[in-house]
Each structure stands twice: as C-alpha cells, then as structure tokens.
Amino acid sequence: MTANITRKLRPATQLVHAGTLRSGFGETSEALFLTQGFVYPSAEAAEARFKGEEPGFIYSRYANPTTDMFEKRMCALEGAEDARATASGMAAVAAAIICQVKAGDHVLAARAMFGSCRYIIETLLPRYGVDFTLIDGSKIENWQNAIRPNTKVLFLESPTNPTLEVIDIAAVAQVANSVGAKLIVDNVFATPLFQKPLELGAHIVVYSTTKHIDGQGRCLGGVILSDKQWVDENLHEYFRHTGPGLSPFNSWVMLKGLETLTVRVRQQTQTAAKIADFLADHPAISKVIYPGRADHPQADIIAKQMSGGSTLIAFEVKGAKKATFNVENTLEIIQISNNLGDSKSLITHPTTTTHKNLTDEARAELGISDGLLRLSVGLEDADDLIEDLDIALKAAV
Ligand SMILES: *Cc1c(COP(=O)(O)O)cnc(C)c1O
After folding, report:
1. Which of 28, 80, 262, 271 could form a disulfide with 225 if both were Cys (CB 3.0 to 4.6 A apart)?
2. C-beta 210 within 6 A of ligand 1
3. Is the distance from CB of 75 to CB of 81 less than 8 angstroms?
4. 328 alpha carbon, distance to own chain's centre
5. Does ligand 1 lie within 6 Å of residue 86's CB atom?
6. What gap in Å lies between CA 355 and CA 349, rounded to an integer?
7. Is 354 touching ligand 1 by the criterion CB < 6 Å?
8. Dist CA 259 CA 216 (whole Å)
9. With 0-12 CB in 10 A as exposed, 13-18 as middle and 19+ as buried, what is 347?
10. In angstroms, rounded to a whole number, what is the distance separating the alpha carbons of residues 153 and 138?
C-alpha cells in the first residue's frame, strides 16, 4: 500500500511523492477515500483494531487514508514526527492550544496575530480559567519579563499579519524551555518552504492550509505538526473526541496543492520582490514593508531564520483612507479580498476589514494605519501587476 521510495528526498520531490498510499489498483494520482467508515473481515479483526493490536482505519473522525497521506506529506516537508490535519487554520490553532491547557495555566502570546487567534486567547480561554498576556513580541525582553512558572503555551506568528513584523523564533523557544512551556508558531506567512520553526526550537507548528498550501483559493484547511510524544499525549484523544479533522475531499485538494507548492511560492515570491522594489520608489507611497528587502526593520533576524522573502507585501499610501480606497477601487487585475496565498493577486485594507474589531489604540500599537494595504501576490505576470498598481497609485493622488 505504501510508495516504496527509501532514499532521503529533497523538498520539491517530497511534495510530489511523500506519504503516498497506493491501493491495489495502482493509481498514479492519490486516491480520494470518500468514506466515513471501514469494514472489518471478521469480528476478531474489529476487536484487534479497536484494541490497537492491528493497524488500520476505524472511522474518519479518527483518521482517513487520504487525510493520512496529506499529514505524512506535511510531516516530511516540515521535518515533524507527527501531524493532524484540521478543517481550517483556526481549528488548528484552537486545537493546538486547547488540547494542552487547563484552568490555572497561563498563555503568553505576541499581540500581532490573526484576529481570530486573538479571540481564542483573549476571550475564549479566560472563560475556562486560563490566563493570558499579550506582548510586543519583537523584543525578546518582553517574553522574558512576561513568562511565569505556570506559563504553559507561548504563541507567535512570524512574519505577522498584516505588518510583516518578524520575531526571533529561536530566542522565544529558549524562553519557553526555561519553564518547560511549549512554543506554537503560526507559520502561514513564511510557508513551510522559507521557515522551519521546529528546526529553530519551536515545539509545535500550525498552518492554515487554506492559504499557500491549497494555493488556488478553493478549500479551507489546517494542520498541526509536532513530535510524536506531544501528539500522542495531548492532541490524539482531543482530536478523536472533538472532531475537528479535515474532510477527505479537502485533504485530497491539499495533497494536489502541495505538489505545486514549490513552483508557485517561488514564482510568487520573485514577483513580490519585484513589486516591493517598484512600490518603494513610488512617490504615492510612504512606506513599504517586505521581508526580502534590506530596509526591513528586522532584516538581521530574517537573514538568520528565513530562507526566502514573502508572497505578501505591506505598504502605506500617502493620503490615508480616501486615497487608499481609491487605489483599491482603480485596480483591475488585483482583486479586493481578505484572503491570501492565492494564485490570484488580492489586496485588503486591514483597518476596515481583517482588523476592524481592534480598538484604534490596538491598531496603532500594531502599526496598522488608515493608509496601510496588504497585497498578496499571485501568479500573474509581474509587469501586468506593476502596471495595474502604477495606474491605481497615479489615480489616487
Ligand atoms: C488565515 C489565517 C489563519 C486562519 O486560517 P483559516 O483557514 O482561515 O481558518 C490563521 N493564521 C494566519 C496567519 C492566517 O493567515
């Protein structure tokens, strides 16, 4: 049933082959096992499988062969021992935190994070007696000062949404280890190609696979990766009994997405770098934040922990909200959407969309101004995108 490749593979090859389970029909492409349950050849076999004495699938809330292929392929890419795929990125973040905390524990997180992650930590966890602290994660002293003996989980996103700030993962992992806590890294913006949090010392990595891993704007999905012991002791039972797993169909879409991840993300990053340079020189723009440019405020940390730039660019248009809306409304190729990592280029105004629920003060702390736009660069020709932006920026000011 398994593919018989035994050599150690490079990432692009893993993305095409790792984890493949081939059925008796010898299909080339990964099979879609659209089934809830599995039948057993005998009552004895059913008993043995439930006892864990015999390998095999039991029920798709627990595990499914198509989802299993996706999880194994992600493990190979990430260098993780085990993984569980979830119905969305938020299901991954929620499960990764909730499966390991109890009343009386403390969670420490960088405040610059995806809005729904903030809801879990600030609103949901305190209802169950889990305390939290949010800090400016870019300064390592802030982590050192806020850590407590009862801190169980540290959580960060790097680069952050939407301002593409970078946090020193290895340094934060050391702070976590000082009290035996676990560091969870939301690695969506870096993609598994350009940043390996587990190698940097993080204990758990989460993705919204909705983004670059699907990469073509179709299905929601997520994945949690860690060592086998952590998955066995924390996630395994939580997952079976609360049912946040990814559907076989969406797992299959994600598997096919992984096959082209390298070519898509490399191309999108190359285009993004070219657009970032164009924007940096544009008179209608006051600031460009791009993790591939030498003028990024944390270029030194980027050089240390990332092997590539980003498919995302943050930039500020002079003239605040009015001019910024004009830019968005004049664009023809680049579409207005809060999604990212798609093959279609997408732009969003965080102040009035993804980050509208934050107070003015909280937005100011995060550097989210009225002129800020976040651009997710797709697979279109770079020169068409630059022309689209140039026309819109000229019209705006
Ligand atoms: C999109 C996103 C999420 C949430 O993922 P969904 O698949 O939309 O649930 C979490 N973190 C980051 C950084 C994201 O970009």
Report:
1. 80
2. yes
3. yes
4. 25
5. no
6. 9
7. no
8. 12
9. buried
10. 18
Closest of 93, 94, 74 to residue 83, by C-alpha:
74
Residue 203 exposure: Cα atoms within 13 Å on the Cβ side: 23
Q: Give the separation between CA 386 and CA 375, rounded to whole angstroms.
A: 12
Beta strands 151-157; 182-186: pairing state: parallel
**What domains can be seen in the chain, in order of their start residue?**
11-259 (3.40.640.10), 263-396 (3.90.1150.10)
Q: Output the CA torsion sign for 64, 78, 346, 92.
A: positive
Q: Which of 79, 12, 88, 85 is nearest to 251 (CA)?
A: 85
Q: Among residues 77, 281, 292, 274, which one has the least CA distance to residue 189?
A: 292
Q: Output the six-digit token pair for 30.
A: 């990964």
Exposure letters 146-157 (e unless 16+ CB within 10 A, then b): bbeeebbbbbbb
What's the 204 CA to ligand 1 centre distance in angstroms? 16
Q: Quote the tokens at residue 48.
A: 């043995």
Asked whether the beta carbons of 169 and 185 are under 8 A apart, the reply is yes
The count of other CB atoms within 10 Å of the CB of residue 272 is 25
pLDDT digits (tens, 9 = 90+) for 202-236: 999 999 999 999 999 999 999 999 999 999 999 99
Rounded Cα distance, 210 and 221, in Å:
5
- Which ligand 1 atom minimizes the distance to the CA of 340? 15
Per-residue model confidence as pLDDT tens digits over 3-55? 567 788 899 999 999 999 999 999 999 999 999 999 999 999 999 999 999 99
The whole-angstrom separation of Cα 70 and Cα 64 is 10
- If residue 389 lies in a helix (H) or strand (E), which one and from where to where? helix 382-396
Distances in Å between the Cα of 48 and the Cα atoms of 42, 52, 109, 126, 237 are 10, 6, 43, 41, 19
